[in-house]
Design goal:
Radius of gyration: 18 Å
Order of helices and strands: HHHHHHHHHHHHH
Strand content: under 5%
Helix content: over 70%
Structural class: mainly alpha
Number of helices: 13
Shape: globular
Number of strands: 0
Distance between the termini: 33 Å
């Protein structure tokens, strides 16, 4: 799987696995399996979660949250991106207004390097005025624009994310990369400072952030490795 930065994974996709709302009969049983699956996933018991989600699907095959949860497992844990796309597509077919499903479809396509297609899904997610967490799609969209070298559009997307979630350190960190690519080094440093100040792990310490980035870059590759090296460069400004 062609991962984007490690910072995105849990925040964007695991947050979509929330409690489903179902009716009676088999739906009640399906809800129980679904909730058990969520609990297992939170405990990092992946196979047990996958089994419970599939039991829920057998009882309620058209439930968007269950389909979405299975897609998350395929994408994040089984590294089967095409299979995850299949389930995310089923989820948005079950509910065309399911913004989290469109966001996940975008993210899955993003992992395959299909940035333009991913952007179209993020736009679909954002077209729903009732989408409670649009900062997710805006941040993802900004990342796609950044990969495409369309830095002005990336900057605008990250700023839209920040407008909706002013304490979102992730968007500031991604914005710092964007400014760095645009050679706005002062702005890049300022955005990085904001991100570090907001991160409870770093608690405003640039040294703590640098140490963390150096540790992670040893195991990173591709886009993730380059992002980490750029973060380290920005910390020098």
């Amino acid at each position: 799987m062609k991962k984007t930065t490690f910072l995105f994974i849990a925040w964007i996709l695991l947050g979509t696995v929330s409690c489903a709302t179902m009716g009676g009969g088999d739906h009640v049983k399906a809800e129980a399996h679904y909730k058990i699956g969520v609990a297992y996933l939170n405990e990092n018991k992946i196979q047990q979660a996958f089994v419970e989600f599939n039991k829920a699907k057998e009882l309620d095959p058209g439930n968007k949250d269950v389909l979405n949860a299975i897609g998350v497992v395929y994408l994040l844990y089984f590294d089967e991106v095409p299979k995850s796309i299949e389930y995310f597509e089923k989820a948005v077919k079950a509910d065309p207004g399911f913004s989290d499903g469109y966001n996940n479809l975008g993210y899955a396509n993003q992992q395959l390097g299909r940035f333009e297609k991913a952007i179209s899904y993020y736009r679909q997610a954002l077209s729903n005025p009732l989408y409670p967490t649009p900062e997710k799609a805006y941040t993802n969209m900004g990342d796609c624009y950044y990969r495409l070298g369309r830095y002005g559009e990336a900057e605008a997307a990250f700023k839209e994310a920040i407008k909706r979630a002013p304490n979102l350190g992730l968007a500031y960190m991604r914005l710092s990369l964007c400014y760095n690519a645009m050679r706005k080094y002062g702005d890049a440093s300022a955005a990085m400072t904001e991100a570090i100040n907001m991160d409870p792990k770093y608690k405003g310490s640039r040294q703590a952030a640098a140490d963390d980035f150096r540790t992670k870059v040893l195991k990173a590759s591709g886009y993730e490795e380059q992002d980490l090296r750029d973060y380290l460069e920005i910390l020098k400004y």
